[in-house]
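@here heads up, posting the sequence + SMILES for the magnesium ion run so it's all in one place. Ping me if the SMILES looks off, I pulled it from an old spreadsheet.
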Amino acid sequence: MSDAAIITTNNVNLWYNEKQALQSVSIKIPKNRVTSLIGPSGCGKSTLLRCFNRLNDLIDHVKITGEITLDDENIHAPSTDVVTLRKKVGMVFQKPNPFPKTIYENVAYGPRVHGVRDKAELDKIVEQSLRHAAIWDEVKERLNDSALGLSGGQQQRLCIARTLAVEPEVILMDEPCSSLDPIATAKIENLIERLKEDYTVIIVTHNMQQAARVSDYTGFMYLGKLIECGKTGQIFEHPKEELTENYITGRFG
Amino acid sequence: MIFTKKTDSAVTASKRTARLSFLKEQSVKTIFFFTALFAVIVVSFILLFLLRDSYPIFAQVGLPNFLLGPDWAPTAMVPLYGIFPLIVGTLLVTIGAMVFAVPLSIGCAIYLSELASPRTKKILKPAVELLAGIPSVVYGFFGLIVLTNFIRVSFDIPTGETWLAASLLLGVMALPTIISVSEDAISSVPHEYKEGSLAIGATRWQTISRVLVPAALSGIAAAVILGIGRVVGETMAVLMVAGNAAIIPDPIWNILSPLRTLTATLGIEMGEVSVGSEHYSALFGIAVVLLVITLIINLSAVAILRHLNEARAKGPARKPLVSSATKESLSRFAEVIGIALFLIFLLAAAPWWLVALALLIIGAWYFGRDRLSQKHIQTIAFGLVGLATVIVLAILVIILQDIVINGLPAISWEFLTQPPKDLGRAGGIFPAIVGTLYLVMGAIAIALPLGVGAAVYLVEYTREGRITRIIRTGVDLLNGTPSIVFGLFGFAFIVLYLNVGVSLLAGQITLALMVLPTVIRTTEESLKNIPQSLREGSLALGATQWQTISRVVIPPAVPGILTGAILSIGRAAGETAPIMFTAVIFSSRFLPDSVFQPVMALPYHLFILATNVPGSSTNKYGTALVLLLLVIGFYSVAIFLRTHFQNKIRG
Ligand SMILES: Nc1ncnc2c1ncn2[C@@H]1O[C@H](COP(=O)(O)OP(=O)(O)OP(=O)(O)O)[C@@H](O)[C@H]1O
Ligand SMILES: [Mg+2]
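bot reply: prediction finished. Complex structure tokens:
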């Protein structure tokens, strides 16, 4: 890959109890690009994604070996603070998960926990993030309503705004559109397109067209292994591996 | 021809069986309906009899004078029946208990739900339940012997029987309720919230304090209200440590003053009053006031919890109940009030160095908190949460070890098998053990069929509607009724009105009414856990509803029902207030010959030994230990059954 990498993994293995979910995965995630991860259900896409912000730490009995670096720093090093890491690597989940707070409070939550107190500054961050997430016009009249009253697509964009408010370097998205209708999906895809100017985006998706549309790079995973990774055009048009070709063309048994 | 004939008779025969089985189904359903209605009937009877017996006093002094009259002196030359000091006493004890119990419980609940490893949790949760299992008379006994003494010495006052003692003791008794309900509330906050917050880079403590606890707030509120209900309705423990002077503390925040609650007044005076007198009627008036207060408290907690469950089932609410700005100012307000209350308590009682230390800490916190890093704040917060848990555990250990160490020397074969001698100073407690067993066995024999029947009706025979709502409210009301009120009702209705007399039977019935809601609830829960597909499978084979219930639904629910029954037995075995006026005598060499004779009972025996028989120290502790072991034994069996059964279901 030609672009500079922001995240690199080297021979990462991961076990849930006895069950191995990742097998020697080595991947380079290019900076300021959109990388998509595709593969059949249960192949370890979410698991890999959650390695990048160490969210797997929450699960009991998880064992990880190998090396993951962000900006050339090992994210498992004792000197790395997991809170700082997660500040740099934001995440948008499959199911929109706004907090049971107001729209404003949802977006302000991140800056607040990172120490922003000033009301004017918070207001500014909230507005910018909501604008950036392309939802400002829809919610600007009701910032003090509960976020739970928004539609699914709006909630998801709110969650993106919430992530943006912390100004991460990388945004992880785990099937962000899977519970949304085509219109909401299109909005999020446009959004991703614009996000890569400032951010590195890694997106897990089951939707092949979506991967082809939004991403610059694509990685294909199968049974816990990274089979192939490269420029999206190349993966979709001239895959090197037969497995990849079979999966992409839908000839998968 | 023959062929058709045969079919004809077969048709009529099957018609007849169909009609028969229809009749049978109907009558079974009717029986269940009446068992379900029973709770409502009991509640109305309680209200009816309390009102009937209290009417004369209301008619005579009038409700305002009764409620707001400044003096309670029912035995004076000119008797005065003003219960204002008693209401204030109840209120003050409750506030004190909450100031003590709420922070500890919430800390412990946070620890249990968010910080404890699964293994620690496995030890801690039963420990908290154990705290709930200690009978109130044992708490009272411990309070009287150890706590009041401790207070007397540390504050250098003539007697330790004070508001402080009552609040501390009742606070401890409220801990398990508040802990388990809030732990439940925090644990059931959706996991996504937690992940969302952590993924933004919030620390664990920020996630807990800003997302999880706020999201669980109404559950925690319900927990606190339930705790308040427990404190307000408690009789024996508070009676034994509060000093019982019917005065308003002077100044009002003097926590070293004795005071008297509504319940204690009933416990103390009901035994000595002559039936039908003005004083008797006034006591029933107190019971009415007490009942109304506790019912309001418990119904509001139940309403909050039910609303919460519905909200959870239906998905998120559209709008937050209170806006975030209001919430913020509310919490700031609560913070200030909390600190103010705490300071008042300190100023009133504590030595000066403690006041100085507290001021120093509060000051340091206010000025330092903006300068501390989130990491440090998290460390401090987790330290405090852990400390709360340690304190709760320490309380349990202190109480248990005191009673075990002092009680063991008393235990001997003679002690367990001989009747008491010399007013219980010597001899054993055999009749009390047997009496208690008789009481609880009778109680469960009455409560089990009624309770299971009611639960079957509620779960299997009706849809949620007006009838179930009425019945559920009846059960909730019964559940929130203080045990001393059951005692008064048992006395007025069973002992006097039905002319059963002070007897084993009267005690059994009273206890049965008291544990009925527990039986109904646990049975309901275990029935609801039976998958709907089982019922459908049986009905699809052409089984009638009763066949389905009796052969398919009830058998797998039996362990759950049994758990509820054993929990109820444990609870009934430790209760004093309901049997005090209905079933017991203090000292007897003989076992009862019939259910119409009074019996001895362990809790009452302990109560009298502790309060009225000086110089029976060893036997007191021995009785407390036996009672404790008996009750805890029942609880442990129930807890074991439940976990065993749950694991089995999970497979
Ligand atoms: N918490 C867990 N405990 C145990 N095993 C897990 C856990 N989470 C995931 N797994 C297992 O690890 C494997 C990879 O799971 P993962 O969620 O990463 O798959 P995925 O590629 O994201 O699938 P999907 O496309 O369905 O989301 C699966 O076999 C799954 O069963
Ligand atoms: Mg996944």
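MO: Chain B is about 80% helix and 0% strand.
MO: One more: The first helix of chain B runs from residue 2 to 61.
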